[in-house]
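Worked example

This section walks through a single chain of length 312. The input is the sequence exactly as stored; nothing has been trimmed or padded.
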Amino acid sequence: MKCRVCRGPAIIDVRRHNANFCAEHFLRLCRDQVAKAIRQFDMLAADDRVLVAVSGGKDSLAVWDLLTELGYAADGFYLGLGIGDYSQDSEGYARRYADGRGLRLHTVDLPETHGFDIPGGARAARRAPCSACGLSKRHLFDDAARRGGYDALATGHNLDDEAAVLMGNTLRWQTEYLGRQLPVLAARDGFPRKVKPLVRLSERETAAYCLLRGIDYIVEECPMAAGNKHLAYKAALNDIEVESPGAKHDFYFGFLDRASARFRAEVERDRDGLAPCERCGSPTDAGVCAFCRLAARAAGPEPVRLSDRRVR
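Given that input, the structure is written out below as tokens.
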């Protein structure tokens, strides 16, 4: 097996490109694919300050590393979710990566700053744990980017993630989500610009990138993710990819090219009624945003209005 570029010994095959690569040229491929995604979707300007949402996993650490390699001023932000040892271990990986490279990592602990953890918040709000987690992350990542004056918020969503989410949204025709499923969402109405620089790389490729770059990351899946349909969609798409290399890429980028624009009008209508949250000031279409309602429910039982009837 020889590298497509230098004809030396290859260490990885990338079947959708019908090519093999040595370590040097595979790392170059990863950098080139991220740079291409940034250019293709106009994600970042050269002088942008970027906040990277970091979990301690391979994708978030890979995107932080790649953005730094490409010359962007990128800081990390880690949110402690209070999921037992898993959260402590995840923060350790993020902290060691940042300290080892002299990078800045901001941290916020959800139980300490907002009084609830994800398991408790999910029970109190009667939400699935992944739903409570996603809501908390979106709110607090956005808040950190705004308060820190960053030009963009970057996440580690890769091609596998985006294709799996697209499959789920398409199976249920969740048009409001289809309208927002883009590699970049422009800053608007108090929301920061959000970018996904890894959309041209697969999960396998980000794992290989971390291995070759000596990036240590948490391997275990979140213990709260058991039964998450997203993982089932990933597994189904992996089976399809084995039989038809490039299927994930064609599915996701075909949607962006041919169908995505059809759903954006609904998103624009949904944003017409946004106003600052009465409690935190974040944009919301209700008086109090979903995160503040979650925090209030998790803090304790809501007051109950007693009947005017006398109890006998």
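What to look for: The two ends are 86 Å apart (CA to CA).
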